[in-house]
């Protein structure tokens, strides 16, 4: 290759890199030129990576957005899973479900993924319903353990068996108390409450939500998949359901000045407490506008 040709290729590469960077920076600027929503999230909704800051060669930080979907009718067996808030199944109204134009179940639900929109609710009715479910679960556990203790006293069991049963109940009591505490103090308050391929359908849902329990609502893009329960071969009547695979933006970059405010996580038993001002822009893409430690920032 001659030197002129090499110079042309180098110049083309430089122009390409500059063009791509200009496009990305231009999109970021356009997105941030209009703030459509502002949320004050905390460590409950933004996960600090495990052992943050321990790798000296990497000082970058991204916070994963923690969210869930409402659980309709949980029972006691479901609660162990529900308490971890890893629910991704969402029941939809027929128009929203139809908007995705899912294919036949013979194609397999795994390949039935569509780009669409979801309605996020922060600290609203869905979280209040979750708290009520947690409180009811806690009350049921207390009643059951009390009934078991009373029944065992009348059975004439040997002392060692009574002690073993009492220890088991104490462990269940502690587990129930921890789940109830986590629901009140640590569980995410960010819920996906609706989804559609057509953004206008969610605008209609958004317009119906108002009042003191509505919380903060916003529309964001997401990847939505046909629920595996929809294709189950049974005779039960099925409700339209989808699986929310992921939000289009699932993690937030933390600028170095903000990241330095978070203490190094040397002990995973401690919880870093902070508040982050999160803005959503013109293209429904979020960014962290400010981050500060909360009072009592690191607690056991």
From TrEMBL:
Family annotation (InterPro entries): DUF4824
A Pfam family this chain is assigned to: DUF4824
Domain of life: Bacteria
Entry protein name: DUF4824 domain-containing protein
Origin species: Alishewanella agri BL06
Top-level taxonomy: Bacteria, Pseudomonadati, Pseudomonadota, Gammaproteobacteria, Alteromonadales
